[in-house]
Amino acid sequence: MPDWSYQTLFRPILFRLPARIARGFTLQAMGRLSRIPGGTFVIKTLGHVEPSPLLRSTFQGVDLPTPVGLSGAVDADGTAVKAISQFGFGFVEMGPVTLRPVANDSPIHISPANESIIYPCEYENPGAEAVLHCIRHPKHRLPQFVRIAPSPRAGPSEAADELQALYEQFADESGVSALIIEALSNCGEIAAERHLLKRISTFLAEQEATAKKPLLLYIPLDLPEASLREIVQAADPSVWSGFVIGDYVRAEEGTIITGRDGRQACIAKLHTIRAYARGNPVLFASAGVHEPADALALIEAGADYLLLHSGFVYSGPGLPKRVNEAILYDRLAKEEAPPSPSWWTNWGWMYLLGISMMLGGVIAWIIAANSVLLPYDEAFLDMARSQVAAINGNLLHFMSHDRITLAGTMLSIGILYCQLARHGLRHGLHWAKTAVWASCGVGFPSFFLYLGYGFFDPLHAAAAVILLPMFLLAMRNNPDRPNRMPVNLHNSTAWRRGLWGQLCFIVVGASLCIGGIVIAYVGITDVFVPTDLGYLCTSSDALDVANPRLVPLIAHDRAGFGGALLSDAVGILIVALWGLQQGARWQWWTLLWSGAPGFVAGLSVHFAIGYTDFIHLLPAYFVLVVYIAGLILLYPYLMSKERAQHVTP
């Protein structure tokens, strides 16, 4: 459920349902997807969320792939953690965990206006035993942080006993990377909380196992500043590795409030801790991260790591990826960029391949619009052009329409390859290289589709022999490099409309993939669809009688066009899925100019030859409408000049 489907299709529906039902449905759906064979591959493919190794860090011996974690409240039962762990997170939080299960059926309230969530019970969880089972059978590879808490309404003495018991249960678990102790949000009375914290701190200091797990103290967002200063000044660095700034806790009401409004309070807490804490504690911020700009503001205020909660619900599953990209860009912007590789190192060969495709498309269009048949076509048929025309008055027009649509597709592919080479391969962008690999991986093998009919196209074969080395040279010695262009920071109107535009182009790419597969399949099987024979006013058998090599020649055209269309579609689909980046103007122009030749060729030739059957052209009309809508919706996002990256907390 990436952002382009969550924000556009699913969120409007889910937010109309009761929050518990919507959350349960979403988590169950993602959980089931991750459990089926190939499910995690589908998740990764749709989102392309593999984080850069440059984001990897170590927290007291714990290897964290990214500085972004998942709050335990998002999926308290661990229903979909396997799926969610694929979204670009570096660690997951389990909890809050109490000794015994805490259940509550009261409604969860959401407020889309200020993007907040109100949980009716602050410690709702399946209990320690159930969480231990999840930890021992994680079904993912991310580090697991466990937040332990006393039972609701427990007195200071009882709370201390429960926290000690929970510590003893989880401290020796190999699957637990760190423990978060919640000792300040249960009683609602400052004196009682201080007593509880002092007792649990003394207990932890006496434990031989203290050094085994990093210990983090949970700080409620509404903890008074004076109390916070006193607590962090008293916190022993040899016991506490750091602090986790969490959500608003209303102890007297038994509720938890999380939302965008918590960002400023979290920033204030970060400043206070940095100013008064002894040593250099590691700080985790869990409040108010709803867009990448929020994350950068918290990091600038002193946070080392982040936990996503309400922002994950309101902004969508793509938020961790967007935050990772913003953090990475912010780091790289302070460094000098390495020089771009020379033309002949790799990317220039793909540019030449694209130019060759465009040149071939222009030549193919000119031939198809005039003589239609090449000398080796006539030799294969053992018939002159005039004799072919005499078989059926529409036959050459029909063959011309196949070849002109192929020429338009070749132009589209050529433009796409040139742009991907210049703006993607040149900078070592992984998604661009994948787009080229996948597109060429489909295009070159399509040469063999029509060989079963016994027709060998020498020109097509020569082109493949020339272009294949270019492709191989383009992909050599080109390791992945991080994106150094500015990234999206805000959940702006342009971003939201851009998601609709992205959805449009994903539909375009997927539709063209289906079209390419269908056309190629028809080309190597039946060759004609009913509307083709209706236009020709003949049958396949009649054409076989006229010349048994005629249908194989037409099949060659159809199969070649189907393969080329699929190759083009795969490239467009990957660009739409993975590549779109705010302010990347070249991407909008690429989508415009790489799509235009195909539509112009495909539709103009049908009207030129009088093949205007509505049902036959309906798929093309549909894709054209979605294509234009996508360009309109993406324009503000891709052409935006707003590239300010510095965020003032």
What does this structure look like?
By secondary structure, the chain is of the alpha/beta class. 56% of the residues lie in helices and 9% in strands. It contains 24 helices and 14 strands. Strands 3-4-7-8-9-10-13-14 form an eight-stranded parallel beta barrel, surrounded by five helices. Helix 8 links the parallel strand 9 and strand 10. It is elongated. The two termini are 31 Å apart.
Q: Which terms summarize this structure?
A:
8-stranded parallel β-barrel; 649 residues; 24 helices; single chain; alpha/beta; disordered C terminus
Number of E-type strands: 14
**Sheet/helix structural class:** alpha/beta
Mean pLDDT: 90
Shape: elongated
Question: How many H/I helices?
Answer: 24
Amount of helix? 55-70%
Q: Report on the biggest sheet.
A: 8 strands, parallel, barrel
Amount of beta strand: 5-15%
Low-confidence stretches: 644-649
How far apart the termini lie comes to 31 Å
Order of strands across the main sheet: 3-4-7-8-9-10-13-14
Radius of gyration: 30 Å
Task: Give the topology, please.
Elements (H helix, E strand, L loop, with lengths): L2 H12 L4 H17 L3 H9 L9 E3 L2 E3 L3 E3 L10 H4 L6 E7 L11 E3 L4 E4 L8 H9 L7 E5 L7 H15 L7 E4 L8 H17 L8 E5 L5 H10 L7 E4 L2 E3 L4 E5 L2 H15 L5 E4 L6 H10 L3 E4 L1 H6 L3 H14 L14 H23 L5 H7 L3 H7 L3 H29 L6 H14 L14 H17 L18 H32 L5 H7 L3 H7 L3 H30 L5 H25 L4 H25 L11
Parallel strand pairs: 3-4, 3-14, 4-7, 7-8, 8-9, 9-10, 10-13, 13-14
Antiparallel strand pairs: 1-2, 5-6, 6-12, 11-12
Helix pairs in contact: 1-19, 2-3, 6-7, 8-9, 9-10, 10-12, 13-16, 13-18, 16-22, 16-23, 17-22, 19-22, 19-24, 23-24
